[in-house]
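Risk mitigation, structural track. In case the binding assays with zinc ion fail to produce interpretable data, a predicted complex structure has been prepared as a fallback.
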Amino acid sequence: MSPAPARVTVPAEPLVLGIESSCDETAAAVLRGRTILSNVIASQTEVHAPLGGVVPELASRHHLEQIDLVIDAALEKAGAGLGDLDAVAVTHGPGLVGCLLVGLQAAKAIAWGRGLPLLAVNHLEGHLRSVWLEHGDIPSPSMNLVASGGHTGLYLMEEDGVPRRIARTRDDAAGEAFDKVARMLGLPYPGGPVVDRLAPTGDERAVRLAHPKMSDGSLDFSFSGFKTAALRHAQSRGLTRAFPPPEGETPSQETRDLLASFQTSVVGFLVDRLMTAAERARARAVCLSGGVACNSLLRRRVAEEAERRGLAMFSVRRDLAVDNAAMIAEVGRRQLLAGRRAGLDVNADPGLEL
Ligand code: KG4
Ligand code: ZN
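Fallback model:
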């Protein structure tokens, strides 16, 4: 069989299918220009929750089961068929290799069969651009905090639209720290939303958790110290629990005090770094993206600090903050309009950087 002949013209508002499968969400979305026609996410949280974290082998098997269904659902919801598409965009890294390959193969098959441009998207650029997808143009320069379960970094965006990394994490990601602390206290996975919900019922001044300092003055992040300090405190007070926790156990006041202290300290650290980076770059706006951008305290603190400093502040709504394919289609749309294309030989790149 030979592939369909390649299309040559690109409309100003192209119809782009996005596909995302880098971790534990199988996702597909259709954009017409910047308008989201569909954004379908099949979450595997229920599969991995009893195990306390994402199991790569299980994740790729579930992607295989879900990918066609999710793509069909996204097309149907958008009222489009494969023949209507102008391009296919897909995450090719970073992420779990077996998971990335499932989305990549699906995207390549569609691109080859329909003669469509294939666009290979960096997952982190997807998170970063989710802010633009929701809000349109953001004042330049902007300082962007991308914080998820796998990555945490600060990126400067200037007029040219090329992200420049200002800081990265030297160990765990912010979301990973939330997940690990919740787990050691016997709380369900993923821990971030649970900590967010329980922390307001605890005393944030109960436990002192110091911010790490970089001896070289860099704005890089580090979260393993928070985690170790929380573990030491939990052990000394007998707060640690086996995972999974017994059904129906409610966290003690001491546990909630630790959660509140942990969240306040981590959020304070994120906000300090973001604001210092924004100041150094003379940014006009600060943006939040990635799963951790759902955190209520983080949003509130960044909004307060931004207002105090006269900066515009943008964060993304929940369905665009967590892993989704609309953000991947958005980066693909930008590549398409800029004339960039990936070859059918593009490979998964688990360690891809931004
Ligand atoms: O962006 P995302 O869906 O997937 C990755 O690319 O990793 O982020 C998931 C991460 C998890 O670590 C989860 O605990 C964290 O985001 N998260 C939160 C909240 N909601 C999700 N962390 C803190 N507060 C929240 N409300
Ligand atoms: Zn992500």
